[in-house]
TrEMBL record:
<protein>
    <submittedName>
        <fullName>Acyltransferase</fullName>
    </submittedName>
</protein>
<keyword id="KW-0012">Acyltransferase</keyword>
<comment type="similarity">
    <text>Belongs to the acyltransferase 3 family.</text>
</comment>
<feature type="transmembrane region" description="Helical">
    <location>
        <begin position="189"/>
        <end position="211"/>
    </location>
</feature>
<keyword id="KW-1133">Transmembrane helix</keyword>
<feature type="domain" description="Acyltransferase 3">
    <location>
        <begin position="42"/>
        <end position="376"/>
    </location>
</feature>
<feature type="transmembrane region" description="Helical">
    <location>
        <begin position="117"/>
        <end position="135"/>
    </location>
</feature>
<feature type="transmembrane region" description="Helical">
    <location>
        <begin position="159"/>
        <end position="177"/>
    </location>
</feature>
<dbReference type="GO" id="GO:0009246">
    <property type="term" value="P:enterobacterial common antigen biosynthetic process"/>
</dbReference>
<feature type="region of interest" description="Disordered">
    <location>
        <begin position="1"/>
        <end position="36"/>
    </location>
</feature>
<feature type="transmembrane region" description="Helical">
    <location>
        <begin position="282"/>
        <end position="301"/>
    </location>
</feature>
<feature type="transmembrane region" description="Helical">
    <location>
        <begin position="217"/>
        <end position="234"/>
    </location>
</feature>
<feature type="transmembrane region" description="Helical">
    <location>
        <begin position="355"/>
        <end position="378"/>
    </location>
</feature>
<feature type="transmembrane region" description="Helical">
    <location>
        <begin position="49"/>
        <end position="66"/>
    </location>
</feature>
<feature type="transmembrane region" description="Helical">
    <location>
        <begin position="86"/>
        <end position="105"/>
    </location>
</feature>
<dbReference type="InterPro" id="IPR002656">
    <property type="entry name" value="Acyl_transf_3_dom"/>
</dbReference>
<keyword id="KW-0808">Transferase</keyword>
Length: 388
């Protein structure tokens, strides 16, 4: 999802859009699904809902960072930069969740797997591509058929829909990656994940600084394979208290370095551009650290919350609400950009740190509520249910 958070920068760089773990930290489970019990799935739902809300927040603050509503280096810009830098984990964590859920070896043939997974994203990809292109042509810019086709072939027909192309590519690869997870040892899998992540980092750096290697609909998923495999490797990781604090420290440090580096690189290169945007990229080194630690922290938080609420006898209602929000998250992701753009067209974003933050926060709340309501309604309409 390397293009999820910007309104104005190049497609591959939109800001809106470690070594092997010790055996006791990152254990491989048996092929049987250990996350089927409510206590084992609560952290997955919690993480998915948090990532969904964070994607909306990224899109709410991104146009300030890309200097649409303020100048580079102002107090307003630094405020948005600080907030946005703390949110860069959202898309990689979505990818890691998919790996955690799908890469465990299981007896499932190619035809069955592809039919199940592509029936889930195929219709949304087709329908929402048409909807967003039509919306853009009618209400936002006068794009023609040639430009629309070009956007589809690039795997980026709308600000956020490239993520469906990323998922589609990962789904194509999944049955073959399951052979690897079934037969390879943990060290080999970590080596593969690290190599693929390193290649993704280099690929994004070359694209950012040289302009070469722009992704397209077929290749857009490749830089994210490392995250996908790491999600599987870390899905059963239980952190000790010391490891939790260490992960929190690494997360905070990566956020601080990301924000500072974005400002420094922007200042050195004459403002916001592809070089500064690379710091924000989902494959930049600091964002990789941020994403992995966020995934681990959400798992630790979710499993401990689940155990505590179960002990207190209050788990079931909370988990039902959490599961409901989690089930609506895909639809919210698909709908929210249209809602946010329409709302922001009405209100704009003020060039003042506090006013901008308050306005963007208001946008996040309104967009989340409207998108949840819209998704809930769509899911009740038989002909439209498959689109979300």
């Amino acid at each position: 999802m390397a293009a999820i958070t910007s309104d104005s920068t190049a497609t591959a760089h939109r800001p809106d859009t470690g070594g092997p773990a010790e055996p006791e930290v990152a254990r491989r489970s048996a092929p049987a699904t250990r996350t089927s019990a409510p206590g084992r799935t609560a952290w997955l739902d919690l993480t998915r809902v948090a990532a969904m809300c964070t994607v909306i927040a990224v899109h709410a603050f991104a146009p300030v960072v890309t200097t649409r509503y303020t100048d580079f280096g102002t107090a307003t810009w630094w405020t948005a930069n600080a907030v946005d830098s703390a949110l860069r984990w959202c898309v990689p964590v979505f990818i890691m969740l998919s790996g955690a859920l799908l890469l465990a070896p299981r007896p499932e043939g190619l035809r069955m797997f592809y039919r199940r997974r592509f029936s889930r994203i195929g219709t949304p990809l087709l329908v929402w591509t048409v909807v967003y292109l039509a919306w853009e042509a009618l209400y936002r810019s006068d794009i023609g058929l040639q430009q629309a086709v070009s956007q589809v072939l690039s795997g980026n027909p709308a600000l956020h829909l490239y993520f469906l192309f990323v998922l589609a590519g990962l789904y194509v690869l999944t049955p073959f990656l399951r052979i690897l997870t079934r037969h390879a040892g943990t060290r080999t899998l970590w080596g593969f994940a690290i190599v693929m992540s390193a290649l993704g980092i280099v690929d994004q750096a070359v694209t950012a600084f040289d302009g070469a290697g722009e992704p397209n609909a077929v290749t857009r998923f490749l830089p994210f394979v490392g995250y996908y495999v790491m999600g599987y490797l870390l899905r059963e990781t239980d952190l000790t208290r010391r490891q939790t604090w260490a992960s929190g420290g690494l997360f905070a440090g990566s956020v601080a370095v990301t924000a500072l580096a974005a400002g420094l690189v922007g200042a050195a290169t004459g403002g916001w551009g592809s070089a500064a945007n690379y710091v924000y990229d989902y494959l930049s080194p600091t964002v990789l650290v941020m994403s992995v630690t966020a995934f681990l922290l959400f798992r630790a938080l979710g499993t401990r919350w689940s155990a505590r609420t179960a002990a207190e006898g209050e788990a079931e209602p909370a988990r039902r609400w959490l599961r409901t929000l989690s089930e609506l998250s895909f639809g919210v992701f698909l709908v929210h950009v249209m809602v946010l753009y329409q709302l922001r067209d009405l209100t704009g974003l003020p060039d003042h740190p506090l006013a901008m933050t308050a306005t963007a926060a208001g946008h996040i709340v309104v967009v989340l509520l409207v998108s949840l309501a819209a998704t809930a309604v769509i899911r009740r309409i038989p002909l439209l249910r498959a689109t979300v």
